[in-house]
Amino acid sequence: MSARALLLLAALATTPALAQQGGRPPEDPTQDLYDEALQSISEGRKGDASAILQRIIEQVPLHAGAWLELALLQCSLGRAEEADRLFTVIEQRFDPPPGIVQVIADARSNGCRQQNAFSQATVTMSRGIDQNVNQGSTHDLAGNSEVSLSPEFRPQHDQYTMLSGEYLRELTQNGTVGFVQFQNRRNDQLHRFDNATLFFGVETPWRWGRWNARTTAMAGYMTLGSDFYQRQYQLQARVGPPVPLPYSLQMHVIGGVSRLSYVSLQNFDATTTELRGQLSRQNGSTMLVASLGAQQDRASTSLRPGGDRSGVSASLQWRHRYAGGVMGELAYNVQQWRSRDVYSPDIIDIVRDQTTHVLRGTITWPMAKNQNLVLEARQVVNRENIPVFQYNNRQLQLSWQWQGL
Predict the structure, then answer these.
(1) Domain map (residue ranges) of the chain
(2) Taking the complete model, does pTM exceed 0.70, yes or no?
(3) I want to staple 64 with a disulfide (CB 3.0 to 4.6 A). Which of 17, 22, 164, 305 is the partner?
(4) Which CATH class name applies to 119-404?
């Protein structure tokens, strides 16, 4: 329940006759609807909230909280005439106490101007060390020491500078957000592995009764060296079913489909579908998130090495906020893929079985208002039954981050 509604109901409770008219007894049939409206307001879905509050008023004309929430919501949307009409109804029908009279007076004196759309920008500048820029292998081809890899396919170490950023902005009154993300990494020496990415998309919240969901549509483009390398398109839905769980756990089911196409490589385009379950728990300054999922990766052509493949993934993330705003985070992810066919007949007659482990640790120190210093360490261990594809990598990165509205 919002602070405004609490204020109104508390004030009405001081007048028994008025409380009997405007209060909400425990058996109130609109209780779930009212909670849903308040949840919609907190999630930025003002259009949904407005429709729900109007339904409540139709069912319970003396629902004081719904009248006040609807009036203030209309005022925040810049609908001054409608807000003033609702304020007048509240004054005449409920005879509000001084606290509510002041809330209404403040809203009128400040004017019902439509609130500016929410927006946020983040810019990050990083300097890092990469032990294996090219994902080079220490193993020889198919484990045969007589067929040795050339030096360019061995691990190559370098340092890099990276500039990244994100901008998001509210697009509709019902919480739809548009976003743009970019990243540009430049190595000190190995410029053929420089890369840049650009992603943009929209995210929309939904609610059906006690079910909540967020859908995301996104497109991305990547360059490698100085060449256009890859395109990616993705649709994803994150659904929160109304399942009561112990220990304040929250559950979400995440499903998605993505399309990956390569500009300069043939026979590697694919479409991937995913279904993943996620459990999370927030306890004060500590958050824990765990997920488990399954994937199917369908090749666009039968000529792709290994053909179609299936996979499973699991992740665990822990985050804690310490004194002074210092944030610590640890994350572990494992992804396993198994191909359907042999990788390359007569050359590598093995069905590829790949497991990648990623361990990441991050510490964030607040430096000044809207500025953070971020230290991140990452370890990647890629194990496969085709030895030439195995690789290890370690990265250490220090970043300065600025956030603004």
Answers:
(1) 3-110, 119-404
(2) yes
(3) 22
(4) mainly beta
